[in-house]
Every structure is written in C-alpha cells, then in structure tokens.
Amino acid sequence: MPKINPAEPTRRHALRHIASAATYFVGSFALPSRGQPTATTPPVGSINAERADQWRALSRLGYGPTASLVQTIESTSPHAWALQQLAAAHRASQMPPVVASDLQDIHAPLPQIFEGVQRERQARAAIKAQSAAAANDANDATRQRLDFSGPVEPLHFNRLMIEKTAVWRLTSCSRPELENPLLARMTEFWFNHLNVYIGKGPVRPFVGHYLINVARAHAFGKFEDLLLASARHPAMLHYLDQAQSVANGTRTAQGGTRGLNENYARELMELHTLGVDGGYTQTDVRELARVLTGWTIGPNMPDGFRFLLRAHDSASKKVLGHSYPESLFRRGEAEGEDAIRMLARHPSTARRLSLRLAQFFVADQPSPALVKHLGQVFLESGGDIRTWMQALLESVDFWDPANRLFKTPMDFACSVLTATQSAPERKSLLLTIGFLSGAGQPLHGWQTPDGYKTDAATWLAPEALTRRADYAMQMGKQADHLDFLLPFFSDATRQSVAQERPALRNGLLLASPDGMYK
Amino acid sequence: MRDDSNPSFHRRDFLGGLLAAGSLWATPAAWAQSGNRSADGRMVLVFLRGAYDGLSAFVPYADPAYYALRPSIAIAAPDGTALTTLRLDATFGLHPALAPLEPLWQQGVLAVVPAAGSPDATRSHFDAQHHWEIGQPGNSGAARGWMNTLSGMRAATHEAQAPTAGDARPTALGVGEANPQILAGAAPVQLIPRGQAATRQGVLGDTRTREAVMKLYAGQDALSQAFRAGADSRMQTAQTLTADPTDNAMGSKEMQAANNGAGTAQGLLLDAQHLGTLMRRDRNLRLGFLSAGGWDTHANQGAAAGALANNLGNLAAALVQLRRDFSEPNDVVVVCSEFGRTSAENGTRGTDHGHGNAMWLMGNRIQGGRWHGQWTGLASGNLHEGRDLPVYHDFRAVFAQVLRGTQGLKPADIDRLFPSFAWDNALDTLLKS
Question: Do B136 and B244 belong to one domain?
Fold first, then answer.
C-alpha cells in the first residue's frame, strides 16, 4: 500500500493542491450547515431537461435507473410516469409482498414469531445452565452471515430474523420487478417516520413484520390507520415501552406494583403526530400515557396485540381538551384508539407530516407554500396518503431543478444495488450492510425514535464521500455494463471514465459526482 | 413544530464577523499569544445522547428522598462493600461501575456540577440536543453549531500567530457521527467514522484507483472540493491511526466489542482512543467531540448492576483513556447530556425525561475532588415542576468558565458563542486560577 511521502516532489505537489482546494473550500463555500440553503450549482454538466426529469423521477420515486426502467420512462413523459407509478404503487401496497422462500419467517403469523423468541430464550437458558463457557461458544456460531441454508437453530432465531429482514429490505429496494420502487420508497418514508430500532432486544424479530404489515401495507392508505397499526404492533409496543406501561399501582404476579411509563405517549405526540411545538404539554403527555395503559403485546393473538383491562387506568382523563370519563369494562381500548385518531387528524400533524414529506421528496428546505398546500390536502382528504402524494407529484416544486436533494447513504446504497442488479447476492449485500453501518445509517439501526435525518447538512461530509467511492468501486466489480447510466451523466464524467481501464469503469460510474444527487 | 425552513443565520454575516474578529485578535494585545498558557488548552466534549441518569452516576446517597423516590433502582448507600455507592463526601458518591474514576476524583482533577442543564424546559430529546448544540436554549430554528464557531475562532487565532496564514486546517475533530449539529457550520472540521473504519484508506490506498477517482472530482464545484478535502483528511487519518503504536496496542477483543457496539456506549472506548491519537499527532486539532447513545433508560434500567451500569462502566473506561491523552495543563474533558431524568422511578423500573442533570469536568485546571454550584436535594418542594432536578446552572455558564480559563476566550467572544447567556459567579470556583 503506498504511503504518503512528503519528500517526494509529485506527492508534495498533490498535497499542496489538495490543501489549496481545502482553503478555497473554506473561504468561498462550506458544506451546507444545517438550515442554510444548499449550494444549487449542479456539479453535472449540461444534461437536457428531459433527462434531468427522468433522473429525478427514477431516483426519488424509487432508487434510480435500471436498463429496463430507463426504457419504460423513455416511452412516456417523466410526469406521466410518476403518476402511473403512484397508481401502481398504491395497487401493489394492497397485495402481499414478494418474500423469497428462505425469508418467509419475517412475514410469518405473529404468534409464530413470538414462539421463535420463546424457543431461543429457552435454548439460551439451557446452555447457561450447563456452563458459562458454552454460552459464549453459542454466540460465536460458525454459521456464515446471510447464509439461510440448513435448519434454523432455536439459538439463532433473533440473529437470523435481523439478517433476513435486511435481505428482504435491500432486495425490495433494488429489484423493481419484485417490488414497486415507489412503494419501497414510501415504505422507507413511513418506517423512518415511525422508526423502531432493530438493536433493542425484544424488537429484533418483529422489524420485518412491521415493515411489511405497517409501513408497506398502509403506505398509501389513511394516515390514521397507519398510525394505529404502528401503535398496536409488537415492534412499536416493545420499542417505546408501551407494552410495559400500566396504571399506577397495578399489581404484578410477583406481588409488586408497577405503573406508568411516559415514553410512547410523548413520542407519539412529539414525533409521530403533532411535533414538539404542536400544542401539547407535559400534562397531556401523562394523560395520554394514562389513556393508553393496558395496550400491550399479545403473543397468542393474530395481530400480536392485547388490551389488558386490569392494567388500564379507568379514572377520568383529558388529552388536548378531549375528555375521557371514568370508564368501565372494555371501553378503555376504544379510548386509546380515539386518542390516536384524534392526533392523526390534528392540523399540527398535517403540517408536520407535510414538511417531512416535502423534505424527503423535494428539498431540504421546501417552500412554505408547498408545505402549506400539502397540509391542506392532507386535512381535506382525511389524511389520505395517495391523494396527498399526488398533490406532491403535481406540484411545480417537485420538478423544479433548483430543488436538489443529496443522496443519503441509504439512497446511495440502494441506487448502486439497483444499477448493478446484484441483490440478493450475498457478497453484495454484505458489502452494502457494511457500507451503511460505516456511513452512520445502519439498516433499521437508528436507536432513537426521530428516525434518520435526510438532509445534505447531515450526510454531505468530506471523508464520508470517499467512503462512498470505496463501496462503489467494490460493487462495480460485480456488475455487468452500466451504459444505461451514461445519458444521465456529464461529458466530463463520461470522458474521464472512458479513459480508464475497463475493469474500473463500472465502479467509477457508480462513484461519480453525478450519482450523488437524486 | 420546528421550523427548519427559516434559516435564522446567514453565513456571510458570520464570515464577516470572523474576519473582523481576526483583525482584532492580531493586535499586540491579542489574548491568545503562544506564550499565554491559559489559551493553549484542548477541550473534548463527550455527549451522552438520550439523557443519562445522573442521579445513578453521581449518587446523592445522603438524601433520604433519593431512596424514597427510587425504591427499586437507587444505588445503595456506601457501606464499603461491592455494589454500593463509592463515598466521595458527605453528600455524594459514585456509582460502583464508575470506580475507575475514583482515583481521578482523589487526585483532584475530576469535578461535577450536579444540577446543571439548559434553562429551556423542553423534555424533547431532539429539541434539547439542538439547543445544546447551537448554544441557544429555546431556539429550535436552524443555526450553526457552537463548537464550529469556536473552531473558527481557534483557527483564526492560529492564523494570526503563524506567518503562513491561509492554512485553514480543521481545529475540531468529531468521531462517530456523520455530521453532528454541534460541529456544523462554516469552519472546516474533521469528521471520522466510529470504530475500525477510521483506520482504513480503502479505495484511496491504491494509487491507480485513487487517481482515477480523483479525476472524477477534479472540478471546482462544491462536491468535488469536499471530496478532495475528504480524501486528504482520510488518508492522513488512516495513516496516523495505523502507524500509532499506542493505538494499535488495544486488544483485538476490545476492538471487536467496540465495533459491534457502534453507536452505543460500548464503542466509546475505541473512539476515545482514535480521538486521542489524532489530536496528539495533529497539534492543530484543539477541540474534540465524541458521543454515545443508549442512555434513554425508560424501563428496567437496573441499579448497581444492569443496563445502565454497563453503560456507565464503558463510559468510565473511555474517560480513563481520555485522561491519558488529555492531561496537558489546560486540557479539559466535559461530559454531559441534553437533560436529566425524573427524580422518581417510573412504573417500569426506569426513569422518564426530566430537567437538571450532572455535568462532569476533568482536567488539571479543574478544581477537582469536589462538586460545584448549588444543590438542594430531592425533597419535593425543591424539584422542578414537582418532579425533576432543577437547573441551577446554565450549561453555557459551565462551558464559559472552561473557555475563558483554558481557551483564552474573552467575554465578547463567549457572547458570540452563546448569545445572551449570563455569566455565573457561583461557578467561579470551577477552575484553578
């Protein structure tokens, strides 16, 4: 490996060049700081407007071009294609997803997943009872990552579920013939908005099921149904501790008492719906937590949910001015549903979600007019996501070349996987999973409920850019020819790539500045 | 709703301010001459995201209310045995998992401000972290990070001293996060990834591939310039870290653990090591930023043992490591979170979002072996909104003491960093003069 030798003249020259570039970099422009408009000068040369629109549609309403997608979009206009995609994505969301036979576990009925968890727990307890050394050995299994051949050892259930979820996700984000690209995009948007973390023990095996049955299934339906599905899903019930939150003073089987946990109620208002300045108080947080007491996991129930009446706080409560009088019997469950639907329909929620949607699909700082318009459509349509999305696609802002978006690591990885059509090939997926972790956007791996940021201020960082090049060069080795990308790229990039050895060309195309924006 | 669409600051104003300030600093009365010992300090900030439970770390064991409020998660009062509080004085003790810090307390280089925080009462992690990182409690709009501004000040100082001005190398290093808000802004900063990834040159290590890639980024556009700067920085980082014998001395098992724990307190040790090595080798770097997640302990947080205890143990190991690398006269390490947790445990043996919290300071200039500022215990009449530790000391006032004492900042500079904060005389004991 060559080392930097400052004594060597050419090297020194190169370093000076880099240093002076860095100085210029400081003086005349800087990485977009948060909240500053990002530089709007495209790095790309003159690409005609039609091509730019095609790139935008393919890269934002999916994860970029394949040879076949390019043919499809060339046969119509980008605007028409976008609306066709919306209709197709909506239809697809109402059908079961394609889940490869070796990944079926993630989509299994919930009681079966709970059973797998239980079996792993028992297997671990049995080993622990033998010896501590054996317990350690069990963790260092010889099984290779992403190898799903052979029977599932009870001991590896959770581990396998994490890996299978990753394989399904990356495959569905990069194989347009298996999953509609816009549906994959919207699944990403909703999963990120209603984030759960795959690193939290009890959440692990449920993330795939949550992606498919919450984010994907409701991707273009009513927001309140999506929110409610999330609230009742074991992944969310575990993630924000709702499963454990009970009325203060509730007796446990062991004779102790348990009580309220505010976690879910707070994030439900702060992040999932109203927003931090959306008009709620600490009292509302506590009252909402009381309304939701008794909402917990139901390992034997088909939907994994159970309302535990004896853990419900049946005294009177008041959330955002809505009163819930003292209740008897099963009315307690309806209180929670009512509160969640009320939050979903709130004008603050419409505003917050519309800003997030516009930031995800249009620009880091979308125009207030667009956000306002989307907010109105959201409210008027009763939170109908398909109608809302159509308003976005029909807006001038979506197509405005000034509204640039820098790819997040997830965008970049999925666009590389899409261009190379290499999922679910094991080596490519391992590279991708590693890249995402190193880039700070591990798959399903954001610990806190705010979800990943999607702006250039977060992801455009000097050293991180060079790591995109690492990943691209490695992935380029696996790919067939990528000539279908050329019409979207600048003359400078095309010429530069053409001068290189054929073995490097695919990687260079994937690593080029042209592919960093969507 | 956070209004991200309304930038409240214009970079040009900032650059103008920087230039004006730079000329001021270049006058003979400049406060940051190389001979000025109180201006040569380095500062490392360790941010525990998610609000760590300070009442489990710096334990008010003498307060009966502490045990009444936390029947199942309080750390037992010191009795000299394992798994009880380590007594520091008549009021406070250390969590047993923080035992490695006890010698630092006894040496007088570790201090705590037990009831500090942001004067803004938000219980939103994300809002509160934003306030801390831009140095403006209550401002949820866009702004630059205060360590970036500080980094710009340090760079200007450096240029004023050195005849070869124009060498705008970063003075701040962030380890682990893609682009933390606290370092975001106009001044160049160095950002490296968590774990072993930081030691790899990757595609840049092969000359032919590197040259081919660099050609793609030969333009004068912003992205190309960023790429070139990143390539330079990354090669130097990887080379420094792989060449450094102390950095390589870390056991492979620890590295493995650290890598697996990316984003958690477990990964902190390796990141601390990388930070120390890079800042030792590049004397231009004066400011360091590290963070760890995993502190939002709403349920089953444990007591002397358990999830939180494990995190605290990892934190202690990282701080001991930082102490090795940051023990020059004016080096200071600060540990903090966006807010504290409820004084009482909740219904699930955890704690919910609170208000005031303990800030930790470590360094030779710190008046250590004692705690500073006001403390009124956990009796219900003394709690914020009847439930949380109050904030008696603005976090900015804590940093202001450090910045004045070890980074050579004048009041006007600190005002620029933390607009409209108030100097807190009660903290004047924090640093040795």
Answer: no
Instruction: Break chain A into its structural domains and give their ranges.
Output: 9-76+405-516, 240-362+365-402
Contact (CB, 8 A) for A314 and A326: yes
Using 50 as the pLDDT threshold, list the residues of chain A that sit under it: 1-45
Chain A contact for B120, CB < 8 A?
no
The residue to which tokens 């702060």 are assigned: A270
Q: A400 — contact with chain B (CB < 8 Å)?
A: no
Q: What is the sign of the dihedral through the CA atoms of A67, A69, A72 and A76?
A: negative
Confirm if A185 and A63 have CB atoms less than 8 A apart.
yes
Residue closest to A403 by CA, chosen among A370, A372, A377 = A370
Q: Which A residues in the span 138-167 are in contact with B, Cβ-Cβ below 8 Å?
A: none
Q: Is the peptide bond before A424 cis (omega within 30 degrees of 0)?
A: yes
Query: Which residues in chain A have their CB less than 8 angstroms from residue B352's CB?
Result: 261-263, 266
Residue in B185, B222, B298 closest to A261 by CB: B298
Say whether both B170 and B214 belong to one domain: no
In a domain, B25, yes or no: no
The answer to the question of residue B433 being in a domain is: no
Determine which of A10, A31, A296 to mutate to test the interface with B (most B C-beta atoms within 10 Å): A31
Which range marks the domain in which residue B70 is found? 31-194+262-427
- Give the residue from B131, B139, B112 showing the smallest Cα distance to B393: B112
For residue B263, what is the nearest residue in chain A, using CA coordinates?
A447
Q: What's the pLDDT score for residue A331? A: 74
Q: Is residue B6 part of a domain?
A: no
Number of domains present in the structure of chain B: 2
* B20, part of any domain: no
Would the CB atoms of B346 and A450 count as touching at under 8 Å? no
> In this predicted model, what pLDDT tens digit does every residue of A408-445 receive, in sequence order?
999 999 999 999 999 999 999 999 999 999 899 999 99
Q: At what angle do helices A462-478 and A409-420 cross, to 10 degrees?
A: 20
Nearest to A261 among B11, B229, B347 (CB): B347
* Residue B160 confidence (pLDDT): 57
**Tokens standing for residue B66:** 């502490």
For residues B229 and B313, state if they share a domain. Answer: no
**Helices marked H in A311-425 — which ranges?**
331-344, 347-361, 368-380, 385-393, 396-399, 409-420
pLDDT at B304: 96
Answer whether B293 sits within 8 Å of A447, measured CB to CB: yes
Torsion of CA B368, B374, B379, B383, to 10 degrees: -120
The reply to whether residue A460 touches residue B223, judged by beta carbons under 8 angstroms, is yes
Query: Hey, which residues 55-114 in chain B have their CB within 8 Å of chain A?
Result: none
* CB distance A35 to B181 below 8 Å: no
Q: Are B350 and B301 in contact (CB under 8 A)?
A: yes
Chain B residue with Cα closest to A201: B307
**Distance between CA atoms of B181 and B142, rounded to whole angstroms?**
10
Q: Is A390 on the interface with B (CB under 8 A)?
A: no
